[in-house]
Amino acid sequence: MKPKSLKNFLQYKSFILLAMLIFLASLLDKTFTTSANITNILQQIASNGIVSVGMTLVILTGGFDMSVGSTMALTGIVIMLMLKAGSNLFLAILCGVFVGVLTGLANGLLISKVKLSPFIATLATSTLSRGISFGVTNHRPVSVWNETFYQLATGSIGLIPISFLLFIVLAILTQIFISRTKLGHNIYIYGSNKEVGYAAGLNMDRTLILTYTISGFLASIGGLFLSSKLGTGSPVMAEDVALVCTTAVIIGGNRFHGNISSVKSMLRTVIGIFILGVLNNMLNLLGTMSYIQIIIRGLLVIIVIAVDSGVKEIRSTLVERIKLFFRRKDFE
Amino acid sequence: MKISRFQDNLIYRIIKNIKDYYIWFFLVGIVTLISLFSDVFLQSSNIFNILRETVVVGIIAIGMTYVLIAHCFDLSAGAIMGLCAVISICLKPVNTMSTVLSVVIPILIGTFIGLVNGFLVGYLRLNGFIVTLGMQFLILGTTLLITGGNQVFIYKTTDAYFFLGNGKLFGIPFSIIVLILLCIIAQLVLSFTRFGQYLKLVGENEKSATLSGIKVPRVINQSYIFLGICAAISGIILASWVRQLDPGSGVGYEFSAITATILGGTSLLGGKGNVLNSFIGALIIVMITNTMMLFNIPYNYQLMVEGLILIIGAILGNYYGKKNK
């Protein structure tokens, strides 16, 4: 086998996994392919998907964002509290999103200027904002009925929910941002080799702050849809979102320290989110316990990265063997 | 270059590296501050209470220090702890045989999970963060599967099992003795054995460690196994102490342990760390939480203070870490 075709195959393994999953699901359960179920899946993955788009950027720079879950919760709570106080829906959403941007900005500043490790900084802001959301709600969920706000998450155009549409639009916009603009391209440079970036005079600190701010912004958009879907803002919601979104990004094929060649990052993330969504939906339809879903999710992560590094190793040894073989012939 | 007798002196080294021990001054400061406001705080019952609460986080923090020194990462420690605690209770320690089993089997399981983590991270060179994230899901799912999502409990156990979490030896709770002994042994191993030196070298610069003939995968593997054993021990002690557990209760402890370790000055970049300081870090976190409970401060402020402590600790650790290099 030529090494190049093997490399291409490696790039598309998450697609193959998704195709296999969809095939398996439609074989095992007839309800899977009904339009109602598909709409359901699309609606379920939308809020986590929007968060994962931001998470992808963070992971490309080689960091993590543990604070997305509590940002989502806090955004939902702020919106609900504003609505309860009788404010305009638009203003409430603006305030909620502002909270997310602020958290992201704080993360970025802590990591780039104070030089904390991304994990520590985001864990700290996560704990802080979780504390704030417990404080402002007095440890109780807040819920207000607002028809327009509820329609945001549940409304759909034809078969496709609005939230899913927004997820795809955001993914495409972010992909254009990171592959077509200089500012976005710096994110790849930071991830692959930040020393080179510094040496070339690029403003790496600003890149990092921008990355985390975008992540915070998208996390709050995700929180908006989550709270709109649930109709409530609760301080305990979205606790495992950070880990699940990291999982989705990794399963899709993105890696820490992405390099310049990885131009399809957002596509991979979308595939990763779909894999998790389809898997969950399939297991739910089959009536398996939710614990098995958690186990399978964990196994999937380990297998995906083990296969990745295994195939890489085999490939490099193959390439070496081939090179050695040809060199010997030339020599003779 | 000849090293003078004076420079080789242990006391000289401690004084020279006094900055590494800033956490001890931090502890003294906090204790003085709290005891000014509360007269209950310095009573022996409260001190023992704080120490007993420290045990669970503290023992995980010991293992976490090893893993972080080797420039690796573990998110699965809390889940291992939960699994071991649940299994220890599920084995129903009502007679001698099952008591032995409910101590030995969790430790074997912890060792095995540590081995798997260490194999994946050390030998296969996978990213530690992702691997242990997957392991966390895997172990949590298994724990829930074993228990069926219900609480596990046991009311009557053998005296020996009860002793592990509640017994007293010379007036000091047994679990505290375990914690302090483990701490001292781990610190001695870290400072005075070849393994400890290898661990620091691997964390500091993996390439140069490989070139100087250290078996890097083996060292990383051993550090993960040690963490697995530590998590299992802390799980057994927790199980024996509370005897009623929620299957998901372990998750979250790894963050507390990492916070304690970072507060103790261990760098996430590897190569630097001190087990005793991690213990003090865990102690400080528990002490502050305990005091807030004494003063009836709501949970949300506890969370916020925890976040702030993490930031302050990381900044201090950064500052002193840089000065030493």
- The assembly state of the depicted protein chains is heterodimer
Q: How many beta-strand elements of chain B?
A: 4
**Shape estimate of chain A:** globular
General form of chain B: globular
Give the overall pLDDT of chain A as a whole number: 85
Question: Can you count the beta strands of chain A?
Answer: 2
Helical/strand content category of chain B: mainly alpha
Q: Percentage of helical residues of chain A?
A: over 70%
Biggest interface, chains and residue tallies:
A-B, 46 and 45 residues
Going across the biggest sheet of chain B, name each strand in turn: 1-4
What helical percentage do the residues of chain B reach?
A: over 70%
Strand order of the largest sheet of chain A: 1-2
Q: Number of helix segments of chain A?
A: 14
Q: Which strand-content bin applies to the residues of chain A?
A: under 5%
Terminal CA distance of chain B: 21 Å
Q: Major β-sheet of chain A, in short?
A: 2 strands, antiparallel
Report the C-alpha radius of gyration of chain A, rounded.
22 Å
Low-confidence stretches of chain B: none
Radius of gyration of chain B: 20 Å
How does this structure look, described?
Chain A has a two-stranded antiparallel sheet with strand order 1-2. The longest helix of chain A has 42 residues. With 332 residues, chain A is mostly helical. Chain A is built from 14 helices and two strands. The mean pLDDT of chain A is 85. With 325 residues, chain B is mainly α. Chain B has 14 helices and four strands. In chain B, the strands form two sheets. Chain B has a two-stranded antiparallel ribbon. A two-stranded antiparallel sheet of chain B has the order 2-3. In chain B, helix 7 crosses helix 11. The model of chain B has no long low-confidence stretch (mean pLDDT 85). At the A-B interface, helix 6, helix 12 and helix 14 of A face helix 6, helix 12 and helix 14 of B.
